[in-house]
């Protein structure tokens, strides 16, 4: 297999040189005008060669990449030396391999972009949300790649995307929320939706007042309501800032350090700084890491009654 991939890599190089062996075979020449950008036959063959070399030589590390990221990065650094690319494309290849093995593959670039708040994939098509506006970006290579990305995302958090479990909700290591839909439940195309963790959750209630999200009078009124132990319901459409506002209100209202605060969530997001906070998070069935046990928010609520809560969020 490896020999065939290397042969394909050389053949791609020869095709770019009119069927002749590439000039300067031992190393890439600065004068070469070969198109080495991602997506070309040469680049794809080089990436495949490096990927197979990684699997052949570092199988144990590749099986559990999150266990030792430093070792993975060292292995990838060796892998990229097995192919002949220019300095810029070698750097890009290394980044892509690290994204494939440790991150979200071709979607990692959008996870790393602080301006992007949401990533949406349907088949090959990819859209991102920036500053409230949705825009189409570079599509994936194929529907197969979309499914491979979805499978990889699920596997990295201990779950499997399959026909029997066609709908998955995951939490990424950075707190981003991921929804995956198997092609069998989505007209033959893989659907991926990633809502990145909202960095604005660090905003305090006075910050929200200063931004005009809520008036000073209403903010003060709601703080008195919470401190008076009345019930409060916060509702709104997706992405409207419910979590950000709830966190700001809770931080401003829970000022007694002796109170025991229990937070119930389907995805860990609030992360309150109150010193006596217990965070309980629901578990979706099918997670190999959790033994396939499902724990609902209702289960958490019933259990919280036995945990002596002063506050329930």
UniProtKB/TrEMBL annotation:
Positions of region (Disordered): 14-37
Residues in Bacterial type II secretion system protein E domain copies: 105-313
Pfam families, A to Z: T2SSE
InterPro entries per the UniProt record, alphabetical: P-loop_NTPase, T2SS/T4SS_dom, T4SS_GSP_E_ATPase
GO MF, one annotated term: ATP hydrolysis activity
PANTHER family: TWITCHING MOTILITY PROTEIN PILT, TYPE IV PILUS RETRACTATION ATPASE PILT
UniProt similarity note: Belongs to the GSP E family.
Annotated protein name in UniProt: Bacterial type II secretion system protein E domain-containing protein
Native species: Sulfobacillus benefaciens
């Amino acid at each position: 297999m490896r020999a065939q991939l290397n042969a394909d890599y050389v053949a791609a190089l020869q095709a770019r040189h009119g069927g002749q062996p590439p000039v300067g075979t031992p190393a890439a020449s600065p004068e070469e005008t070969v198109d080495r950008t991602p997506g070309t036959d040469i680049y794809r063959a080089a990436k495949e060669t490096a990927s197979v070399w990684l699997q052949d030589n570092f199988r144990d590390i590749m099986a559990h990449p999150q266990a030792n990221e430093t070792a993975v990065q060292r292995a990838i650094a060796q892998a990229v030396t097995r192919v002949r690319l220019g300095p810029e494309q070698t750097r890009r290849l290394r980044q892509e391999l690290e994204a494939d093995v440790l991150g979200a593959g071709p979607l990692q670039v959008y996870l790393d972009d602080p301006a992007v708040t949401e990533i949406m994939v349907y088949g090959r098509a990819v859209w991102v949300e920036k500053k409230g506006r949705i825009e189409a970006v570079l599509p994936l290579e194929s529907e197969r790649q979309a499914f491979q990305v979805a499978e990889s995302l699920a596997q990295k958090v201990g779950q499997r995307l399959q026909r029997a479990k066609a709908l998955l909700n995951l939490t990424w290591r950075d707190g981003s929320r991921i929804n995956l839909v198997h092609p069998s439940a989505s007209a033959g195309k893989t659907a991926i939706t990633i809502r990145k963790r909202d960095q604005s959750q660090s905003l305090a209630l006075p910050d929200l007042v200063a931004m005009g999200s809520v008036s000073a009078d209403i903010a003060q009124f709601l703080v008195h309501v919470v401190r008076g132990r009345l019930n409060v319901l916060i509702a709104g459409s997706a992405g409207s800032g419910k979590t950000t506002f709830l966190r700001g209100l809770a931080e401003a209202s829970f000022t007694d350090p002796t109170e025991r605060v229990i937070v119930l969530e389907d995805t860990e997001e609030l992360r309150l700084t109150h010193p006596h906070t217990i965070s309980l998070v629901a578990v979706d069935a099918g997670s190999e890491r959790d033994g396939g046990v499902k724990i609902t928010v209702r289960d958490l609520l019933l259990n919280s009654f036995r945990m002596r809560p002063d506050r329930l969020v």
